[in-house]
Amino acid sequence: MKRYGLLVMAVLMLAGCATPRLTNSEMVTLVEQFVADESLERDHTISAFRLDSYAELSDEYLILRSSPMRHYLVKLVPRCNEIAFAPGILLHRRFGNSLSEGTDFIYTPDSLPFRCYINKIYPLTREQHDKLREQIKAEVKELELKEQQLEGEEVAGS
């Protein structure tokens, strides 16, 4: 009985360390629904673009930030699996300080010659950026609650 108790305790401790995360397809669906709901309009070229930071949402979507008030939702083609594991990204721009769909691409230092072309660029207002972040947080929170319910059911069933 003591062994069983220790085993259950170890499993619960390990489960507590794991943070739930949306799958790639769930995140893509959430982002594409957000684009449709907000009726985001594409911007084919952004002039005077300087990359400040980025956030990886999925293999297909990134948020690029050029200043605290300028965020861009970017769709990549083909999917870029390497970005999740890379320490950073590199941006290849065909024309100086502009960012353009179709010609410019993102890659990681370890993924050369593999290129992820910028397929779509959606400028985001600060409010839209915050709203997208809150939707993602809400989905992750919902996932956490589901996992906690499943854990509770498993412990009750034991």
Walkthrough of the structure:
The chain has 158 residues and is an alpha+beta fold. The protein has one domain. It has helices at 2-17, 24-38, 126-157, and strands spanning 45-46, 53-56, 61-67, 70-77, 90-92, 99-100, 105-107, 116-124. A 6-stranded antiparallel β-sheet has the order 2-3-4-8-7-5. Strands 1-6 form a two-stranded antiparallel sheet. Residues 4-16 have low confidence and may be disordered.
**Largest sheet descriptor:** 6 strands, antiparallel
User: Rg to the nearest angstrom?
Assistant: 20 Å
**Morphology:** globular
Q: How many structural domains are formed by the residues?
A: 1
pLDDT average, as an integer?
A: 85
Beta fraction of the residues? Answer: 15-25%
Instruction: Provide the low-confidence segments as ranges.
Output: 4-16
Strand sequence of the main sheet, in spatial order? 2-3-4-8-7-5
User: Termini separation (Å)?
Assistant: 13 Å
* Oligomeric composition of the shown chains: single chain
What is the succession of H and E elements? HHEEEEEEEEH
> Helical stretch count?
3
Count of individual beta strands: 8
Helix and strand composition category: alpha+beta
Helix content: 25-40%
Concise synopsis of the structure shown:
This protein has 158 residues and is of the alpha+beta class. The protein has helices spanning 2-17, 24-38, 126-157; strands spanning 45-46, 53-56, 61-67, 70-77, 90-92, 99-100, 105-107, 116-124. Strand 2 (53-56) and strand 3 (61-67) form a beta hairpin.
